[in-house]
Amino acid sequence: MIEAKHVSKWFDGVQVLHDISARFEAGKTNLIIGQSGSGKTVFMKCLIGLLTPEEGEILYDGRRFRSLNTEEKRQLRSEIGMLFQGSALFDNETVLGNVMFPLKMFSKKSHAEQLERAHFCISRVGLNNADDKYPSEISGGMQKRVAIARAIALNPRYLFCDEPNSGLDPRTSILIDELLSDITHEYGITTVINTHDMNSVLGIGENIVFINKGHCDWTGNDSTIYRSTNKSLNDFVFASKLFKEVKKFLERKYESGEE
Amino acid sequence: MIVSSIKSFGRYCMFMTQVFRLPDKWRVFFQKLVFEISKLGVDSIPLVIIISLFIGAVICIQMTINIVSPLIPSYSTGLATREILILEFSSTMMSLILAGKVGSNIASEIGTMRVTEQIDALEIMGINSANFIVLPKIVGFVLFIPVLVVLSMFMGLLGGWFIAEFTTMISVENYVYGIQSFFNEWYVWYGIIKTLFFAFIITSVAAYYGYYVKGGALEVGQASTRSVVSSSILILLSDVILTKLLLQ
């Protein structure tokens, strides 16, 4: 479990995060949602340690990130997998090279065992016959899969995903969501996903944190979100005509007592 | 201007303290070192050969045209060509040219890694990204640049020989006698020692500009240009200092 306690962050005198507290539970897909510019990416970077909050603290299963020494931080980082918005695959490495990379750097396994693990991860994300291809030779959806395979190569305890569906078509987005959800439940990972994709929110949001103008405005899950009376949340989640209809449908369903 | 230059220098020094650490995995470091020697060094050989050959020929022609006094021996053309090539062209001028090729390559590669979050990915994994990416480039290029310098000297002299062989401007005997006359071996070492410093400047300055890029493709291009300008100025400045120190 990851906990953020009273996190505040400033840039050049401007406060972008205001006293945010949130819990991200193990074995669940935890979502951070919010409009563009709301501060959710800054919040995620504070969680990972790429940015240091001026106030507050981040705890990884009780371990205070700020209090850890260099070696302890290094150990913790080896327990973290990260899926970046643009995949962040290494351009001069093949698909196999990218997935092998964390294994080469941190694993004490033999080369044959590392290869076996890399092939397992690649097949787990549903990629076949792509080992020798370079990132520029594969589609955006495939790049995301490779990035997921690389992120899970070292059996991470914590998985962070920054807008995993950006730039993907709806069908591929759902496949990526399902894959992340499956991996989370299969390995009991604490997964934190930063998104503004409503399909993800309503599809895999087991624990949702809504960030609005740098404040934590609402927390809940995919079944409570449509009943929320929070105006900012409703304006954000049900902004489109389609989702307004979905909300009405779900409300009717809820009122009639159907599950 | 002065304050920002001091700040930049301070940040550059901090960056170098990150770069010069022991690698996490020596095996991976040596793999990357070989790759960088090939990419930055071996791939520069054709450029060095072509430029040195032609400039050597041009220097020989210029010397032949300008040294016409009956008081100056005819072998002076070869001697002057050799001195110009060894003392300045193959070390300083070639380094300025390589600052354009190698420096812009490094700045744009690392800058692209920064804007596409590849450097963040390394940091998340707990890897010292500056050390991992930059150290093999600096070590690789510093190790290989003496090869490029000596090659440049040889090709420049060969360019002059072609003029002697295929024109009537100077005889081959006079040219060959000239390039052997009053030879001071230290000048070759002086050229090589200078370029070790220049290689460090080219790679480290380019890496610094690439590493701290903020923005997108436009900023990567700007960083690449700035790295070439800055390293060229630093090369010329250090050339003055090194010449004073090594030749006096």
List keywords for this structure.
heterodimer; A: alpha/beta; 24% strand; B: mainly alpha
- In terms of per-residue confidence, which ranges of chain B show pLDDT below 50 for 5 or more consecutive residues? none
The first-to-last residue Cα distance of chain B is 34 Å
Largest interface: A-B, 22 and 15 residues
| Helix content estimate of chain A | 25-40%
Sheet with the most strands of chain A? 6 strands, mixed
Short description:
The complex is a heterodimer of chains A (259) and B (248). Chain A is of the alpha/beta class.
Structure description:
The complex is a heterodimer of chains A (259) and B (248). Chain A has 259 residues and is of the alpha/beta class. Chain A has a domain at 90-155. Chain A is built from 9 helices and 10 strands. Chain A has helices spanning 40-48, 70-77, 95-106, 111-124, 140-152, 170-187, 198-204, 231-237, 241-255, and strands at 2-11, 14-24, 29-33, 55-60, 63-64, 80-83, 158-162, 190-195, 207-212, 215-220. The longest helix of chain A is centred in the last third of the chain and has 18 residues, at 170-187. The model of chain A has no long low-confidence stretch (mean pLDDT 87). Chain B has 248 residues and is mainly alpha-helical. In chain B, helix 6 crosses helix 8 (185-211). The two termini of chain B are 34 Å apart. Chains A and B meet through helix 2 and helix 3 of A and helix 5 of B.
